[in-house]
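Exercise: predict the fold of this chain.
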Amino acid sequence: MAEVSMCRRRSSSSLSPEEERILIKDIALAAESKSKEGDTFFLITQRWWQHWIEYVNQEHPDVSEHRPAGIDNSDLIYDAAAAEDTVDIHDTLLEGRDYVLLPQQVWNQLHSWYGGGPTLPRRVISSGPSRSEMAVEVYPLRLQLLLFPKAARSTIRISKKETIGELHKRACEIFDLIPDQVCIWDFYGRKRHALMTDIDKTLDDANIQMDQDILVEVLSLDNGGLSATKGASRSHNTELAQSQSLTSVKELDTAYGTTGVSTRGSSGGLTGLQNLGNTCFMNSAIQCLVHTPEFARYFREDYHQEINWENTLGMRGELALAFGELLRKLWAPGRTPVAPRPFKTKLARFAPQFSGYNQHDSQELLAFLLDGLHEDLNRVKQKPYIKSKDADGRPDEEVADEYWANHIARNDSIIVDGQYKSTLVCPICNKVSVTFDPFMYLSLPLQSTTTRTITITVFTCNGSALPSTYTVTVPKQGRCRDLVQALSNASSVKHSERLLLVEIQNHMIQRFLEDPLILLSTIKDDDHLAAYKVPKLAKKTKYLQLIHRRKDQGSSDGQITSGWLPYGTPLLSSIPCDDEITRGDIQKMVHTMLSPMLRTESLDHTDISGVSSAIAASNASGNFHGEACTDSAISNSMNNEMTSSKPVKSLKLPLQLVDESNACIDLSAGEEKAITLPSASSSSILVYTDWSQKLLDQYHTHYLENLPEVFKYGPVTKKARTEPLSLYTCLEAFLREEPLVPEDMWYCPQCKERRQASKKLDLWRLPEVLVIHLKRFLYSRSMKHKLETFVSFPIHDFDLTNYIAHKSNAGHQLYELYALTNHYGNMGSGHYTAHIKLLDENRWYSFDDSHISPINEDDVKSAAAYVLFYRRVKSEDSFVGNGDLSCGGDNKVVSQK
């Protein structure tokens, strides 16, 4: 290596500092406009560069005192005594902190003035998915060449843009071998992964990694021998050099800060974590955080000055230091798996729930890490006490900004929260409370955990339609009003109508579900519900319940007995309380309700004269007791009144009215006779109709039979199997209004009592990095269950624009997936992995503890997806944050709750 010259070159002695600055600036600008692939840049130590910048920018220069000595790059390299063509730079260098990249023309000019060295040239290569971006390859691949069958080895540096053919040529030159007798293998992990025969393929495309082995296999050694081998490569467990903009001062900042060429370091970030015993939950979460670009940049710089050593809510900086040290190891060149024992020890100290070697929830660990790192790195040393105010009718924008200002007055770190609007409504006094709360990550319920399907048959009371069965989806923790609304939409209820819900048991109406606040959780899957379309009447009404019965023959103690038993589904109609009602009016109402089911052939010849009806002294349901209605009295009147010659509308049906004393009144006689409605304490009038076989033949009564259960368990339908649950659907379920659970009641300031209020969430501000947790695990006192639901989540263009309640901010809210954790198996013995996209390579990898392998983007989606990591897509019409106070900045990360 050439000696580092400490003398000044006379060629620049005649130039003033200002002249040097202007000349270098002009050269740099010219070089920048012509930079292309294959150009050469040179590393120069940041220390010397900063000295020269200060020298040429001083206002009153003293040349003899301030002029820099010769260029000295010795602090960038391992061995200053090595030959210049074998010089290797430190693995931990950072652009802007340790070195600056200079175009060849700038380097040549400075070197001609100041001399020194060593010279550290680096080539510009194409990068990115389109190969259109330029990057300086500061760290070419360092490969171990292992000769077989002879035990020789050599370490070489070669660009990842070189071809397999060039690597083959270099290997033959190093070991003095005949090319035709040599083949090379991808020998990663000391295993023969692939024979490298495509000589035109680049090493980058062949997925050759930093510090991996290449097996050089000699097929015949007859005509070749070994010349010399170089020493084995060093093994360093240090930090990877990172791309950052060039930093300088004044005008030269611009000249070097926007060269259009960024530093491309070695292929860091492909280091696995050893499984210490059921620590896959920890490994997967750590890898996702480590590969969050904002995290990687922050912890690879000097973050120590931001540690909050006095924060009692944090870990006195110990968690941040342990995480930062682990992150740097994982980003160091090389692929030797790291054992995270020091980090796990520190973790167990501050979070005993994660001690030992049991399996844990990776999302719970992630939540702890984000909260702990935030407090360790919180720039607010003394948190002020601020009491939040309720909205009280003020504009949302004003209230949201007030809450956000209060939040950031107490919380300012690399981890930035989002903000959502929370609206609570008291079910009693309708008091509305609006607050704006920060969130650290979004926990989205899968649809099956928040909604349920309910099947109900809808009947009309005006004879306009046959009964129809509908299945609607409602919030699992919703109320009857949600069910009525969904069913009204499905059954096209008119504005002049409303739905009346009832529960049916033993063919009788068990209860009316008229209270809109009844919880849907009180409706069981094996219940039977019916709904009746009734008119909206301003005056007071009662309900006429038509209970169907048919004759049943059975045996008791060897004797054949017969009786009338409840049958089918009751029908219902409304009766005005203020009007006089006759027996004929009841007959007409029942005729109207049954008319849609009347058989067509019955319209011309109706003969039900043989109908007989009776009501047992005690009906089959056991709900009524009192005087019996005799068989003879009813049948005689029926036989006299009904003949086949009468039209349908005048037929007398065998109807029996149950009065207040449970006595039965025959409605087939005395058509004009008024009836007495039950007292005000009763809202219903009970009427029986007994169906003889002849009467059954006149109607399609199967519409009254087999009322379906609320939910029938069975095989998944084809539609359900072929249409996956969308992430957007999960988000909509999260934002849907629903009542609070009973154990989480809200204290209403107006009622002065705890109420089961309804709660509605709306997204207000979104962070730069959005973490979404899919709630796959269900916990209860008696059950632990995992949902294997496949959720279709977007990898690109996750558009949240329409979900932002803060409409005053225009622009698209687009996100792109860059990492996720997966959970396979059941809750007790499952396994965690991570899928991560290396953004500079535009390539996805699977991180399975210590094993890392490339995967196709199509393989990223699976039913195992658990925690998703999204980054905001920068565009001209999108904002860093929603509102002036929500900007995360370049070095800020968010997680969500």
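Check your answer against the key: The mean pLDDT is 77.
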